[in-house]
Amino acid sequence: MSSTDSTTHATTGTRAGRSRAARVTAWLFLAPTMLGVLVFTVVPIVGSVVLSFFHWDVIDRPTYAGLSNYGELTADTSILTAFRNTLLFMVLAVTLQLAVALVLALALQGRMPRWIQQALRSAFFFPLVLSAASISVVMKYLFNQDFGVVNWLLGQVGAAPVPWLTSEGWAMAAVVLVYVWQQFGFSFLLFVGGLANIPRELHEAAAMDGATGLRKHLRITIPLLSPTLLVASVVGVINALQVFEQPYVLTDGGPGDATRTAVMVLYQTAFEQLRFGEASAVGVVLFVLILAVTALQFRLSRRFVHYQ
Amino acid sequence: MTTPAPPPAPRRGTPSRRTLLRAGGYGLAAAGLASTAANWDRLTASDIPGRDGSMLTVAILGSAIDPNQQSVLVEDFQRLHPGIKVRLLAVQATDWNDFFAKILTQIAAGSAPDVVYVATEGVQLFADRLGLALDDRVRRDAGELREFFADVHPSLVESMMYEGSLYQLPVEFNAADMYLSKKVLTRTGAELPPADWTRDDFTALLRDMKRAGGRGFTPFFWTNRLWGGVVPWLFANGTNVLTESKAPGGDWLWNTFYDPAMRRGRGGGFRWTTPQALDARVEEVYEYLASLVHDGLCSRPEGGSGTNLIGAFSTGRVGATPAGGFWAGGLSAAGVRRDAYDTQFFPRWRTQRHQYGAAGYAILRTSKRQDEAWEFVKYSVRKDVMTRLFQANETTPARRSMLTAERYAKTGPAHWDVFYDTLDRFPTTGPIPAPPQVAAVDLALTKHTATALGSRRGVRPALRALQRDLERAMERDV
Amino acid sequence: MTAVSYSSSSPTAPERLRERVGSLTARRLGTAARVAGLLVVALLTIGPVVWTVSTSLRSPAESFDLPPRLIPADGTLSAYRQVFGQLDVWLLALNSALVTGLIAVGQMITAGLAGYAFALLDFRFKRPLFGLVLATMMVPVQVTIVPVFLILKGMGLTDTLLALIVPAVPTAFGTFLMRQYFLTMPKELGEAAMIDGAGPWRIFRSVYAPLATPGLAIVGVLAFNYHWNEFFRPLILETSNQNFTMPLGLVSLQGNLGTGSISVVLAGVVLSMIPAVVVFVIGQRPLREGITSSGLKG
């Protein structure tokens, strides 16, 4: 994944005894994490995969179901819609989240009193401190069509009330906005860090070449920031594809299926409708989907990500 | 690594600062270890008695009963039955689905509770798969229970029957009546509507409210959910999304506890079977609600719980909304004066049948303490116990005799009597449709209600999709 | 290194200086506009939080007041009194603090060790193992909760606080972050120490770990934030009231059928926010330095 990986391999392995000691150390260092991952994630996942070939309602013993749970997924339009929504949500949320965070990080770089800079940085990070479920309850208040503060603000500038939570188009927008509002602080922090690491000389060189403003950013800053962008987008995608709380509280997946996401369907299928096998199948498909998107990101990153 | 990033070396005053940091780090680590050790019992929960399953465990919805009342409930039971050790599990779920998720996980792990608080939504699912029929015990203790049944409307009892057997004793219920803002009525120059008002009276009232209301005012507000959403209108129009009939049986109960007038038409519990979303009367209901939305008399309904309604209602931004006795407690808790609003029955359409949801304790078939559990179930419906639990009117007690002027003198509307009269005056009033497949039915109904009212001419396609989803749901065994 | 990087002091080429004098006023305006824009975004960001706090300080009947009154006309702490009257806030806070604190510390340790191994040590199956760790981030908790419950039951841990802590200590995200962090450190440091005769553990403890403190702070703060607010796992894994964490306890405030007062509900939210804010404030400095110097290379 990174250039340092290969150097690691190239420079070690000189003396056998030492490298054996290093290997033992490595395994000891890894043991707590790998043991935990094995017991609390790998085993449950394998269990879920196995379960996806069974019918199980928790109350009675599981019965073998072959591939029928997977067949069910393709037959149920509402599940297909949920996967479509999840992908759409992921694209909208991650794009917006990265764009907002990047613009803010860049804007914050310019000259301004240091205390303002720090206050702003804390403000942008703050929503990350809150619980997604409780803040979604608050947001439901604020986005109410008739009495919400959001529509009141819009009304002040002459806009008609928006049916944020009750129209198919707007509901997705509301869920994305609430999600991004809470999450962008994380990408923002990554970008602030990444920007600070871009050597100053490169900016100066660019300035001497006459590059300013947007062009400077496009030609110099963004390429240099690309490793950070990759990390932010990988984590962003993995999180966004598992979105649950915001649509669950704000719209309950509605109106219709407009904001129903894969994890919502999974939860409802398992715990409300007692079809744990089918829910496991949804989980397996979602897992493969996330894996595929992440792999694609790393693949694309080879072309676009620029390492110093 | 052509241009290695500079290592994050500590800055100014390195040695002293690092030493300080290190000392601080050790200090913190020591403090952490000490407090971890001091709280070891807390971490392993070995400071909690009765976790080994030697007690009768009763699962309740944590939000339903004030935590302070919960301990009173247990202590009083303990005093009555010193031989039965009881443990109350407050499931801190925000809704029925989360609650059920928790119970199911416990069942999956073989540590199911003995008694579970179950609402109408889950009555038949529990009865079908998990619950213990109470018939023999009710017959055995008939003498003891006569007073209870005499105080409870037979419809509530029937809603807790499944295929001829009784599974729960109703503790509380809530019918969807109409709450009206006095502020809005005064502004409109209208009186509280009479008990026999019609749907057209209702529409006319909304129009008048709208005229006097101005900007930022919504005459009618409702929430899109199984209880209190579309269903009250379906019932008022004499229809339902699933065909409704009565299971045979149940005579053993009716003949023992109710006189002929009261037991007329009662059976062995409700059966909801064939989907009928394309029924002309169902479509009529949706067309009517769509016309209200279109005329600006109500907004498209939001999904989820209606918690954000109280502020809007109390400030006169909403004129009318469907709610049950529970809302009187909610409004009072929110600081709304009792003379700021009043209640009336739901308006008449083809009928004036109302819908309700009820709840009570169910015993699990797998319980090894069924007799002890039964004692708890009987205890839960004692009048003194219910009186203490429902002090704040956060629900409607299932016992008629508890609905008194005194109870509502501080926290209830002037017409508090509609809460129970809904049952007595309209005896066909029944539970929301909740077959064992209730989760799928609920999902389909709320989903397609939202799309039906989401756009003009959306009703017909949405009802066709609703019918399809309901058929799919009902084909499945749960 | 430091947070403010390209401020007014940056040295300039003579050409640029001239150009700069010419458009000084324009620049000032530009800066003012930019700061104003940032302030608007900051207001939007903390607006909902301010609204939450102010609603918790007034009666629910006023919760829909428009324009929203950010400073309540006649504030009252009665909602907070009610929270304390109804809940054993201190026990909830103790449980939450124990769980969250131990998870955060545990994650810092395990992620530090594993991240170091993945970045700077050499061993077989490095890539597939790292892939495996990453992959665990991709599984929603709802999928694994029933098997995890069964495993914990097998260990005799269900309905204990350890049930929340033990499975949460190994962290894919933290390991990922720490690996990226250690990758920015020169390998030569360790090699030099090795020549001086330091063993592998010594090298980690004395050379690399001290340099990684800021990175570990990130892992700790993020773990604290996440697990402090966690709801679903505690709901499923804890049963006794005495084991409830803050988010579970707060559910009681919602009242039967959601009839609890919104002010009281939000007072609970505000109370539970405080420790997370405190940790954030304490962790801000190392967090800032950590994130600034990590570079986070993919």
Q: Gap between N and C termini of chain C, in Å?
A: 20 Å
Name the overall outline of chain C.
flat
Rounded to an integer in angstroms, the radius of gyration calculated over CA atoms of chain C is 25 Å
The counted number of beta strands of chain B is 17
Q: Please identify the structural class of chain C as seen in this structure.
A: mainly alpha
Pfam family, one (chain B): SBP_bac_1
Keywords (chain B): Signal, Transport
Subcellular location (chain B): Cell envelope
Main location (chain B): other
Tell me the layout of helices and strands:
The complex is a heterotrimer of chains A (308), B (478) and C (298).
Chain A: H1 3-11, H2 16-51, E1 54-55, E2 63-64, H3 68-75, H4 77-109, H5 114-125, H6 132-142, H7 149-156, H8 168-196, H9 200-208, H10 213-240, H11 245-250, H12 262-272, H13 276-304
Antiparallel strand pairs in A: 1-2
Chain B: H1 14-38, H2 40-44, E1 56-61, H3 67-80, E2 86-91, H4 96-108, E3 115-119, H5 120-129, H6 135-140, H7 142-151, H8 154-158, E4 161-162, E5 165-166, E6 168-175, E7 177-181, H9 182-188, H10 199-213, E8 218-220, E9 223-224, H11 231-236, E10 242-246, H12 251-257, H13 260-263, E11 270-275, H14 280-294, E12 302-303, H15 309-314, E13 318-323, H16 326-333, E14 341-344, E15 355-363, H17 370-380, H18 383-389, E16 396-397, H19 405-408, H20 418-425, E17 430-431, H21 438-452, H22 459-475
Parallel strand pairs in B: 1-2, 1-3, 8-13, 9-12, 15-17
Antiparallel strand pairs in B: 3-15, 4-5, 6-15, 6-16, 7-13, 7-14, 10-11
Chain C: H1 14-22, H2 24-56, H3 78-86, H4 89-120, H5 126-135, H6 141-154, H7 162-165, H8 172-183, H9 187-195, H10 200-211, H11 213-228, H12 232-237, H13 246-250, H14 262-294
Helix pairs in contact in C: 2-14, 3-14, 4-8, 4-11, 5-8, 8-11, 9-10, 11-14
